[in-house]
Design a protein that fits this description.
The chain is of the alpha/beta class and 227 residues long. The chain has one domain. It is built from ten helices and five strands; from the N terminus they run βαβααααβααααβαβ. The chain has a five-stranded parallel beta sheet with strand order 3-2-4-1-5, with helices on both faces. Helix 1 packs parallel to helix 5, helix 3 crosses helix 4 and helix 9 packs across helix 10. The two termini are 19 Å apart. The relative contact order is 0.24.
């Protein structure tokens, strides 16, 4: 059985870049897998250049506006840390290229994810926007209480767990599409990689760690660790 090392990250934290670098140097994998698909990788490489009008036509106005607002939030917080969102994924790919390692983009195509989001009922989309606004204004705390989170570091595991439970309870369709279904896709792709490689470092957002670990262990992968 292959050894799979999960590297949970925050997409805007400096600590994530360090964690990715140190894990690849220490583990010396023969494959590096990342939570990206080809289009998201191109998006990061092109630094976010895409056709807003084209996306609006595909997604519809409500879903496009939601996507645009979420991007703006991520970029806003990324500027506070000086880290472009997704830099840890790009770093993992760069290190794999330098070492001649296999690079695997294991996420579901972003078009599929966004089209599924388009089908979410409008009231749940409105609820997400309202929760985002209340979080920014300090009227609601997804972490369960008012806490200070250092954006340069990965939040503590208990806070991530609480936030994910809150997300699943309050926005079940978003949770299913953005977390559960993508966990299944990424685990399925890791299992295929496991037929060819002995040691795989897998860089993922921290919210995917528990679900993917559970699925991997449930399906018989007993050599799973977390960096």
């Amino acid at each position: 059985m292959p050894k799979i090392i999960l590297v949970p990250t925050s997409h805007i934290a400096k600590e994530s870049l360090r964690r990715v670098r140190e894990t690849i140097e220490k583990e010396k994998p023969d494959c590096v897998a990342v939570e990206l698909d080809m289009n998201r990788y191109w998006y990061l490489e092109e630094q976010g250049r895409e056709s807003a009008i084209g996306m609006m036509r595909v997604l519809g106005v409500p879903t496009f506006l939601l996507y645009w607002i979420l991007r703006k939030f991520q970029t806003y917080f990324g500027k506070k840390t000086g880290i472009l969102p997704g830099s840890e994924m790009v770093k993992a790919i760069e290190m794999a290229k330098e070492r001649g390692l296999c690079i695997a983009l294991i996420d579901q195509p972003i078009q599929i994810t966004l089209l599924k989001i388009r089908m979410i009922p409008l009231p749940e989309k409105a609820k997400l926007l309202w929760l985002l606004m209340k979080s920014v204004l300090g009227l609601v705390y997804p972490f369960g209480k008012e806490v200070r989170v250092n954006l340069n570091e990965l939040p503590p595991k208990n806070l991530i767990d609480h936030a994910m439970n809150y997300f699943e309870k309050e926005l079940p369709n978003f949770y299913r599409i953005l977390v559960s279904e993508r966990n299944e896709v990424m685990v399925r792709n890791l299992k295929e990689l496991g037929k060819r490689f002995e040691r795989i470092v897998c860089v993922i957002g921290a919210g995917h760690e528990d679900g993917m670990r559970h699925l991997l262990e449930e399906e018989g992968t007993d050599k799973v660790s977390t960096a």
